Amino acid sequence: MPTLGIDLGGTFVRAAVVDAKGALISSAKAAVMDRKPQGVVETIAQAAEEAVKRAGVKVDGCGVGAAGQIHKDTGVISVAPNLGWRNVPLGEMLKTRLGYGVKVVNDLSAAAWGELHAGAGRGAQDMLVVFVGSGVGSAIIAGGRLVNGAGGVAGELGHIKVVPGGRLCGCGEHGCLEAYAGGHNLIAQTKELLATGSSRILESLVYDDPDSITPVTLEKAANMGDAGAKEIHERAAQFVAVAVANQVTMLNPARLLLGGGVLAHCPGIRQRVLDGVQAWASQTSREGLLVADAELGDDSGIIGAALLAA
Amino acid sequence: MPTLGIDLGGTFVRAAVVDAKGALISSAKAAVMDRKPQGVVETIAQAAEEAVKRAGVKVDGCGVGAAGQIHKDTGVISVAPNLGWRNVPLGEMLKTRLGYGVKVVNDLSAAAWGELHAGAGRGAQDMLVVFVGSGVGSAIIAGGRLVNGAGGVAGELGHIKVVPGGRLCGCGEHGCLEAYAGGHNLIAQTKELLATGSSRILESLVYDDPDSITPVTLEKAANMGDAGAKEIHERAAQFVAVAVANQVTMLNPARLLLGGGVLAHCPGIRQRVLDGVQAWASQTSREGLLVADAELGDDSGIIGAALLAA
């Protein structure tokens, strides 16, 4: 029977009815106006009911993918930074409201599960999915199962330390991979560079609008020979490449999937990651390794969440 | 019913009969004289039969822990450097000789399984075991299951790259953690330092016998203020500490076990690892984390192998 998949973001809720093979039957979207748990439950329920109505089928079970730290067995969201939540029993609340079983998982885990069953991971049992977008994250599948970790936060690739004591990260710690290579931080570093007044090439690309800067601007400036931009770009690419290569060595996946806006739109960084895996993952761990791009885009999480509830 | 556990090394085979709770009932040891697969099978069988005779009980099933790359489903040893083997179907050969089921696993996986069920890992579902001895390795338990990886080589912590392009490792690649922090390489680096003639303190500890050098010698020289020794020691400790902290961030284990001769006998390095996990593992990943020493010593592998076959 089809199931519901929910993608719970900080500003929007997306709901979709998904069949057992991971195909989207219908979807609906609603804005999160009231961020209090009861308000969000209501928003989810409305989007869910709309999606079910559009699909015109009966559904059984609902999976929710949400950014944050989640207890997989209880469906309690320990921390959801986007929503400012701590210890919200979303699974129970939503179950009461919807009337059927609800499974809550981390958004990247949901995305990886979607790719595993309906995307670029089909057929793999051991997989590492790396996302470099505004943040940096990953999800691990081992022996066909999600690796959640004891507290539900396994896969925090963005918060491994690449420069102990280094650049301050949004998480409050220093020297995290994300502080150097996440999209938000690539932009921040590019703005810092611009503010020094030393980068003519970067200035020529940005004119007087620093807010137009994206990671693509950085890569463009680096490719045009801007020394400062090159340094930021190189460092970020190298840190991601070594980190991913080292996780391939540790986890020995059959498949490595790459996703997220930075990897999709900055081919220079993406290529460095591909080269890095070949150069630095241990020889035995990369035998038989297939590297591919995640292929479901924004739908991966919603499909994965639905399939996890099936 | 009790099972047999086999610890297959390059020079000795140990066999033990182990009960369902992981207690050793009896054991036997035999030297590996003939390293050809058929010869090793015979040596294993003799040790196994001796252990069974001493136990005076019937056994059902046999687990083998061996250093190398092993296909968990088939029991084929793809590569066993100690024995010079490639693609040896040890599981099948031993099954034919012994007359009951045989499971072959990596030696560190066996050791982690032993600690999980009968040692310092009891009660944990998610665990990382790190061994720093002559080499550096690890084993991962996620959701109560061993993470083997697609090719059976997950957990190769010793071969993550800490200095891309750096010091040559025994594996033939450059810049591996093991090349800086494995016991063999700590000794090699200490000998290199001694050969420069610049380290009086080290010289005073070694006299004229470089072959007496162990990782403990290095730590002693570092503690006495030898600048060169300090550098090698600090660098190794820092690399291990960051690597372990980063794996805690990625895997979010409930328990981290430390084992191996270097961590057992060099308290300075061990302490740096403990401090590093506190300083550098992401805050969410170390909530509820328990760090402990592996407690079964040399028996962990044999017990784990037996329990895997139960």
UniProtKB/TrEMBL annotation, chains A, B:
It comes from the Bacteria. InterPro entries: ATPase_NBD, ROK, ROK_cs. Pfam families: ROK. This is ROK family protein. It comes from Corallococcus llansteffanensis.
